[in-house]
Each structure stands twice: as C-alpha cells, then as structure tokens.
Amino acid sequence: MPKPTSSLHWLEPGNPFPPVDSAWGPRSDAPGLLAAGGDLSVASLQKAYANGIFPWFSEGQPNLWWSPDPRMVLQVANFRLHRSLRKTLLRFQHTARCEVRFNTAFVDVISACAHMSRHGQPGTWILPPMVEAYTRLHAAGHAHSVETWIDGKLVGGLYCVALGRAVFGESMFARASDASKIALAALVGFCRHQGVDIIDCQQNTAHLATLGAAEIPRSAFLAHIRRAQSAPSLEWHFTPLYWNHILSA
What we know:
Order of helices and strands: EEHEEEHEHHEEEHEHEHH
Helix content: 25-40%
Strand content: 15-25%
Distance between the termini: 39 Å
Number of helices: 8
Number of strands: 11
C-alpha cells in the first residue's frame, strides 16, 4: 500500500467522504485509493459501505479508504461449484458433526482472518483497530460471520457487512480443507434464498475468479447497492435447506 501524499484527500473524524469518482485511477500506484484519515466508527463505516467505499490499510498507516473501478463481485447465480467442492458439501451436509452457523463466533472469525494474508501481501490488514471497529459494527447488526464447525470446533469461516440486501464480503479463513469454501457456499445459498444477487468482493484475486467472481464497472456496482440497501434487512440464520440452492443448481 502507498503512503498518503499531499494529493490525497484527508478526512477529519466525522467528515463526509469525497465523491468516489475522485479515487485514484487505474494508472496510479494505488488504483481505487480515495482518502485517508477519518475514523472507524459505526456511523463512518455505514456511510462508507453505503457509498461503495471500504477501509484497508497496513500497520503504521492512517486509515485508508478505497473505491476501485472496476469492482470485483460475485454474482451469486455465477458461483462455480467445482466437482471436488460438490463432493465435500454432500459429505458435509449429511454428517451430523458438521454444521454451518451464523453469528455465533464473530470475534473468533475476524481474529482468525487477521492471521491470514490478503492480496498476496505478507502480514495482515486486519489490525486491532479494524477488529474492534467491525466488532462494534457486528454489535450494531451490520457485520456478520458465517462459520464452518466440525466436531464442535470452528475450522473456517468468513465475515461480511450487510446493509439491507447489499452484502459486502470481507475476509475468509480455513483451518481445515475447504472450510472457507464451505462457508462461502453457505453464504451463496443463503443469498439465493433471500433474493440477494451480488456479493461484493472488493478487489480482483485469482482465487475469487476461480469461484465465479468477475469485475463490473463501479457505476453498475453503486447502482446495485443503492437499490439493495433500501430493501428490508436480511434474516441472518442458516438452515440446511439452503444447501438445495447450491447442490440442485
């Protein structure tokens, strides 16, 4: 990640975000970088996500805010269920000691994600201030964990943000083979059942592309989340019936 320069918009706590079309362009050192500073309060994070903006920064940096163009998203109808994952899900679905849970171990999930690298970079971007901020966002009902449990142990999962029916994926972790993919498949099944069309993936990675994610113009992404966040909030509970939306597709 770059160090902020004088050309970067600086936010004081509580300041509004600048227009996303002022983010650094694709030929810059940091495509999508919009602003620095501000705070990680629940109100600020809600405003950020509502406008297609997310925080991402490393240790020693100020809060950095991003809105890339194009935007990587997973159209849930395009989720690729590879043959090996289908076999895993069939075994998981019919094994009593295996289950998916929502929102029972949010802090454990985000803490585990903090030990995973992102975008091929060493270390973590989920620093203690981020863990604290998203834990507050979870307490406010806007951040959620999808958890893979085997034999009573948390072996994988992901966390995400949701405003209405706009869902923003954040990070995943796995301590067992395919455990994070199981959580993602569960989220996709849940979204299909609840009428959610898109899961935001923020930035392009090869791993997400293998699962069916693809880039769309930022303008199309913003139009989607403006519609979706005005819809009624999702009911965050998981039932095994949601696997039918994956395995029968």
